[in-house]
Amino acid sequence: MSSPELPSVPPANVVPEVADVRVADGERLRSVELPGVTLSVRSRPPAREGLPPALYVHGLGGSSLNWSALMPLLHDVVDSEAVDLPGFGDSPPPDDGDYSITAHARAVIRYLESAGRGPVHLFGNSLGGAVATRVAAVRPDLVRTLTLVSPALPELRVQRTAVPTGLLALPGTALLFTRITREWTAEQRVRGVLKLCYGDPARVSPEGFRHAVHEMERRLRLPYFWDAMARSARGLVSAYALGGRQGLWRQAERVLAPTLLVYGGRDQLVGFRMAQRAARAFRDARLVTLPDAGHVAMMEYPEAVALAFRELLMGATDSADEGDTGQPGAEGAPGPPADTGGGATADDKRG
After folding, report:
1. φ and ψ at 341, to 5 degrees?
2. What pTM was computed for the model?
3. H or E, element range at 84
4. What is the pLDDT of residues 299-337, one digit of tens each?
5. Cβ neighbours of residue 307 under 8 Å, at least 6 residues apart?
């Protein structure tokens, strides 16, 4: 299916000649063929056999690499895998050209069903947070816990800094942007992304910056890169407009799994004020705020996110031992703040 913005988009079975995707020490990358999609899956061997599975879903313009800093910090408690959504990372475009939230969620569900790994500890960032929320709502049997880092849930008043990303959803914007930025180097693009996504871009090491430039150069050679970006942005905006049971906030209310919400105080894409609304929407939620973090806390402050997840895991285990059934409609009083590192604060709201 061709994009209205770009001259041509290759079918999913056409793999362009580009540089290899980086695989960090200790990681493995494999390709999984599923009906309608082929997914690239990044994994890290767990510390021991028998640990519960975890699956990580990246955000718009990201890839499974976004979770490489967090996965080794949890290797002793979960068996980690991170997926490249269709059209991102090392995954080719979907056969039908569908980049909607529902389609991305369907791809995740198909993978979990085919791998037989469910129920999993499901993680999602930004767009991936919206995808993970939908998966948890419609397939509670596949999700043990849900961890959302700056999830892209509908906002009525978006931040000005988030407007350019939203404009990608408009027909013709992607082509216009590629023309305007044609002379930009990969280094310039990476600096712009870091400034937008990080609370403090200086936290990125020189080696991390070089890796990011390499990945940017690789992505820009993919003929479907901007098409995947534009269509996924359009899918996200369309999901914001959905009402009824398909609305993301309604689906958040349906999630049964214990949920960890992580919000950054310097996030320029997802409003920090949405943290409290999310904590009210998810029935069994723990909210962690990182005042100095931006949009990708799992990359900026992986230790703080790992600690918060371990506390969620302990709480979920304690609730199971106590026979907590997580029935809807019950609300507990917020718990006392907990120190999770990196200047974080946390509150509990348990169903």
Report:
1. 90, 160
2. 0.85
3. strand 79-84
4. 999 999 999 999 999 987 766 555 554 433 333 333 333
5. 340, 341
List the structure tokens of 95: 């056969």
Say how far apart CA 318 and CA 169 lie, in whole Å. 43
Residue 230 contacts residue 5 (beta carbons within 8 Å): yes
Q: Which two tokens stand for residue 92?
A: 């080719």
**Tokens 């992505």 — which residue?**
219
Of 226, 34, 15, 228, residue with least CA distance to 115? 34
Q: Give the 3-state DSSP-derived string for 239-257, with helices as H, strands as E and coil as C.
A: HHHCCHHHCHHHHHHHCCC
- Strand arrangement, sheet containing 285-290: 28-34, 37-44, 79-84, 53-57, 120-125, 143-149, 259-264, 285-290, 345-349
Residues 6 or more apart whose Cβ sits within 8 Å of residue 322: none
Amino acid letter, residue 325:
T
- What distance in Å separates the CA atoms of residue 38 and residue 92, rounded to the nearest whole number? 7
Name the 3-class secondary structure at 268. coil
Distance between CA 172 and CA 122 in Å, rounded?
34
Query: Do residues 115 and 76 lie in contact, with contact meaning Cβ atoms separated by under 8 Å?
Result: no
Angle at 67 between CA 165 and CA 99, to 5 degrees: 45
